[in-house]
Amino acid sequence: MNIILLGPPGAGKGTQAQRLVDAHAMRQLSTGDMLRAAVRAGTPTGLEAKAVMERGELVSDAIVSSLIGEELDSMGADTGAIFDGYPRTAEQARSLDSILDARGRTLDHVIELEVNEDALVDRICGRYTCASCGKGYHDKFELPQVPGVCDKCGSTEFKRRPDDNEETVRTRMAEYRAKTAPILPIYETRGIVSRVNGMEEIDHVSAAIEAILKG
Ligand code: AMP
């Protein structure tokens, strides 16, 4: 099964993708994570992407589509793909069609997480993760049980994304509205779009997604 999770920044795509990975034989393909890894490693792609990401703008279609192609090639043919943060433009949606086609894969579902954008700034600006295991936390909504210690792995190191500040978040949302939301009609015509209320509790959102996958 191959699915796209679509929604503005902070809608919960990464959280839900992670849950799907834990529950099924699927892999999360997050172009944001791939780009952050490239920035950390200082590769040519990372050097090109860094400033663009810090502004909250979109990295070139060619770069992200080639990252997705490479990642799919490293996966077994039976492993399902969860596209998280890709495609983000009409050009990327066209590329994804050819990338999947060339590998004998088909797109089964596009799941849109519907959210109230005003609440998202709060959600994003307070979020951080354990630097060791990646577990997500939030200044207001999800603090570790023991302050400063990760519930999952006990690490005391945490990190925040440099683009999770209000100004950049506003740009990222504007990019979503202008370039990403308009790709939904492409998938609507294929009858594969489902919508889930992304403002509900995480468990409810997961249950709604599972129900869609079971068809
Ligand atoms: P994300 O982790 O999905 O919020 O992505 C973080 C940043 O990486 C975005 O604000 C963009 O600058 C860049 N990025 C991630 N995925 C894409 C994509 N599919 N197309 C263009 N830029 C992307």
Please specify the SSE layout and strand pairing.
Blueprint: E1 2-6, H1 13-23, E2 26-30, H2 31-41, H3 44-55, H4 61-73, E3 80-84, H5 90-102, E4 109-114, H6 117-125, E5 127-130, E6 136-138, E7 158-159, H7 166-180, H8 184-188, E8 193-197, H9 202-214
Parallel strand pairs: 1-3, 1-4, 2-3, 4-8
Antiparallel strand pairs: 5-6, 5-7
Polypeptide structure, described:
The protein has 215 residues and is an alpha/beta fold. Helices cover 47% and strands 16% of the residues. The strands form two sheets. Strands 2-3-1-4-8 form a five-stranded parallel β-sheet, with helices on both faces. The chain has a three-stranded antiparallel β-sheet with strand order 6-5-7. A hairpin with a 5-residue loop joins strand 5 and strand 6 (136-138). Helix 1 crosses helix 9 (202-214). The longest helix is centred in the C-terminal third of the chain and has 15 residues, at 166-180. The chain binds adenosine monophosphate.
Low confidence ranges? none
The beta-strand count equals 8
Strand order, main sheet: write it out.
2-3-1-4-8
Number of helices: 9
Tags for this model:
215 residues, 5-stranded parallel beta sheet, 3-stranded antiparallel beta sheet, binds adenosine monophosphate
Q: In short, what is this structure?
A:
This protein has 9 helices and 8 strands. It is an alpha/beta fold and 215 residues long.
